[in-house]
Amino acid sequence: MDITIFRMIKSLHIENYALISQLDIDFHEGFSVITGETGAGKSIILGAIGLLKGQRADMRSIKTGERRCIVEAVFDVSNYHLANFFETNDLDFDGKECVIRRELTAAGKSRAFVNDTPVNASLLKELGDRLLDVHSQHQNLLLNNEQFQISVLDIVAADNNLLTDYQSVYANYRQAQLALRKAMEAAKQSHDDEDYWRFQLNQLTEAALDDNQEQQLLEQESEILEHAEEIRANLFAAQSQIDGEDFSGDTSNVLTMLKHATSSLQTISDIFPDAKLLCERLESSYIELKDVAAELETCSDSVEADPERLAWVNERLNLFYTLERKHNVGSIAALKAIRQDYADKLSAIDHSEEHIAELTRQTEQLRGQAVAKAKEITAARIKAAKQVDIQLAESLRELGIPNVRFHVEILSDDDRLSANGADKVRFLFSANKNAELQDISMVASGGEIARVMLSVKALIAAAVKLPTIIFDEIDTGVSGKIAEKMADIMSAMGQNGRQVISITHLPQIASKGYHHYKVYKDDDEEATHTHITELTDEQRVEEIAHMLSGAELTRAAISNAKELLNIKG
Questions:
Q1: How far apart are alpha carbons 277 and 308 in whole angstroms?
Q2: Distance (Å, whole) CA 398 – CA 414
Q3: For 373-396, how does the pLDDT look when each residue is reduced to its tens digit (9 = 90+)?
Q4: Residue 242 contacts residue 292 (beta carbons within 8 Å)
Q5: What H or E segment, with its residue span, contains residue 259?
């Protein structure tokens, strides 16, 4: 028979973890069992496997006296489409095997590797969940979880494409809802602030803030007007010294002296050639100073004390300073930007009703699309629920609940849209004749819950490619024929290349495994050590006989063990 291996843990290496110094074990496809006395270390091995699934590291797990521990597993991933996952996360992938390694150090560091590439905890968890499904007793509580119940229906319904389409539309609907809510909140807040904003805008508008340089120019003008007399006096004095006379009539100013000097040089220019050049330079200076004197006179005439103008300039500047302090800025340009911001806010208020109306229309349109998609999902789930009702009831009757009734209740409400659709799901259960169907978490015993979970896992395994499944004492609360039937179900799940591993205390289940591993402890002079080994046929007989009779190995127990293992003689 051609067996396709979906996903399988091929080997496990554990080094310096808890009571394990070094452990190397190979695993096989199909149904395998792990047995061992209570306290032998089965939970230690599960804890190490949990590290490969991205569970939080406890540095106390490092073996006493060691610097680090290592847990490494090799998985066969052939014929399973993981290439996109590895490519997306930039991980090496040969299409055949995947090696996951986790290292803990006594210094408190935790590192994880996939095919020798370092990865973070979230990526390790995502990959680990694809490769390993460890079902411990606490997972039975998932039957109380509506999300788990919905996921079971969706797996059976094979409605992944419907869900993907719906969730895309639903995400757009939620974004539209958020945008509408924000717009309505902003509009309400804006209306509350409208009077304040309008007052601020009017004040800034009335300030006539047109020229960004006006404040600087007015500050200069104010300085001149405040010192007009002083400026005029000094300008006049400078002009007089260059080209004027003092109050006594003395005309010995700079221009007069330059004129006399020039005349003196002209007198000797014919007999002293250098004098001609110097005379020309003096004439040039005379012309320049005469021009300066004229400008000084013009400036002096332009500067005039004007109390009214000074008062206006200072009032204008005070307006600018007041507005700048109020709005905590330092320029007319910044005030103009604030004025524009208020204008924009008030414009948004004026158009908020139209904006909200448009967002409302878009939201309702997307809601309608989401509701339509949700109805398609509901229809698929209702169809799947009928199949789940029948198959789980049949399985549970075989597992020793003859009067079982099981029903998946689906209540759909368009007003309850969520990321999973519009459905509320409950698993209803009754183990007794004429008993009312009730929520399974309220009426099922521990043993019944375990059987329901096993049946659910078997149902899912028939619908999809489950990863390697490890059942940790799922047989709690059952025995005898029921245990045998649970083993038959797990064995069936391990067919067609699947890998199922059951940690068990029951000989009825242990005898059904294709492969049998034993966890045990031994002591040396220094410490206690945990080991795991794959048993031979003879060792299996002895192990199951011990499980039947206890520490003392009897002939009857050996005979019963051979009978369970279907060994003759």
A1: 54
A2: 39
A3: 999 999 999 999 999 999 999 999
A4: yes
A5: helix 254-268
